[in-house]
Amino acid sequence: MQPGDRVRVDRGDVTNEGVLLPSTTHDHLVVKLDGGYNVGIDRDEADVEVLESGARDVDEGADAGGGEASEITFDGDLPTISLISTGGTIASTVDYRTGAVTAQFDAEDVLRAVPDLAGRANYRGRVVANILSENMEPPIWQELAEAVREEIAAGADGVVVMHGTDTMQYSASALSFMLDSPVPIVFTGSQRSADRPSSDNVMNAVCAVEAAKADHAETLVCMHASQSDDACALHRGTRVRKNHTSRRDAFETVGGAPLGRIDYEAAAEAGADGDAADAAIEWTRDPLPRGEDAGEDGASVDLEPDLDGDVELVKFTPGMDPAAWDYLDSKDGVVIEGTGLGHVHTDLIPRIEALIENGTVVAMTSQCLAGRVCDRVYDTGRDLLDAGVVEAGDTLPGTAKVKLMWALANLSDPAEAMGRDLAGELTEESQPWR
After folding, report:
1. Which part of the chain is the Asparaginase/glutaminase C-terminal domain (predicted)?
2. CB distance 398 to 169 below 8 Å
3. Catalytic one among 80, 89, 167, 360?
4. Catalytic option among 109, 166, 200, 394
5. Residue 202's closest CA among 175, 229, 226?
6. Rg of the chain over CA atoms, in angstroms?
7. What is the DSSP string of 271-333?
8. Among 134, 209, 344, 422, whose Cα sits 20 to 30 Å from the Cα of 102?
């Protein structure tokens, strides 16, 4: 049997049928199932029957992560886009031991994996981290922010950050507070890896690059706008939330429409034409404008990367043990996900008041997907305000945690800052879904 053969593999009571893929270990077989997933199988435990020889053409070098090194050419007429990789599904390939995917591409490999990016820009690639996003930590946010600053100062016209989707909203929020950028910073990722027929990596990458070339200076998350391959939504980094585990349109702007929408067909045709890139985007609200020195060597970028890591986000649930809050003692900051307008059990209010008296900044958010906290309606809310809790309006709980980490490290009155907008995270009033 050879890679590309269609095989049936029996192991115990389990039968798998699909196309044999190359494996980097002799001890394991890797089979691509008809549904698009891969499965790794211990060779010694398997009985294999070849159903069809040469059913698929398989490039062993490319599938196994080999092949020639990426080549990047520069054209003086094209804008320069910096591709910064942190890992995640968009920068992943098959682990031929297990059949799963693992993050291992660097930024230049993405150009080889997504040939549709060629000719759209000059690219600079750099790797800040090579992790799955559940392993993201605040120190990496700081490294990422510094890398973005350096790329912009070196003349990048825009930055695309390739990131795992599970914690992308936190990283996008962190850079929104840390950086005052004169050029676009666009986060993108992939819900489904490149080895799957339904992968969203090509469309997301193309739209992200075009969004990074366009005339604005927002920090955005660029992902599928629907389950179809027609457009990507451009979400402001402080207002976005991943609302589905696996759908390609998992990301939504909470409390309103995305900041913009980029048509994939128009973006794909844009190529080297910067004006065409702007024409592919329909903005729902006016974006932040590009800086005057955008794209120039030595462009000014304000960076305030300090973070206070001693901040926790805690979710209130009915019947929770008050002792669960003991670990919050001596924390510098706490963000509470309260119920409804921003409530917790009345028995917890003295516990919260003690935290505040000891110097902890406590901010209240809501578990609801839309709307803002208002602790002036019911007695519980008024008691929380009397205890010193700060209302965070309609700031998303995850964004509020990142904001408080940044505010504690950079502002003289972080409690006051939690009640006002700093980076588009807090609206003046709640808006209906559009």
Report:
1. 310-416
2. yes
3. 89
4. 166
5. 229
6. 24
7. TT-HHHHHHTEEESSPPPPPPTTTTSTT---EE-------EEEEE--TT--GGGGGGGTT-SE
8. 209
- Tokens at residue 358, please? 């000891």
Pick the catalytic residue from 32, 213, 242, 331: 242
Average pLDDT score over residue span 13-37: 78
The domains found in the chain, sorted by start residue, are 5-52 (2.30.30.520), 80-303 (3.40.50.1170), 311-419 (3.40.50.40)
* Predicted pLDDT at 377: 78
Q: Please, which pLDDT band fits residue 107 given cuts at 50, 70 and 90? A: low
In angstroms, rounded to a whole number, what is the distance separating the alpha carbons of residues 353 and 313?
17
pTM for this predicted structure: 0.80
Identity at 75, one-letter amino acid code: D
For residue 166, indicate whether it is catalytic.
yes
Annotation says 238 is catalytic? no
Phi and psi at residue 275, to the nearest 5°: -60, -35
> 85 burial class (0-12, 13-18, 19+ CB within 10 angstroms)?
buried
Does residue 315 have an active-site annotation?
no
Which is catalytic among the residues 165, 167, 188, 365? 165
Instruction: Report which of residues 139 and 433 the model is more confident about.
Output: 139
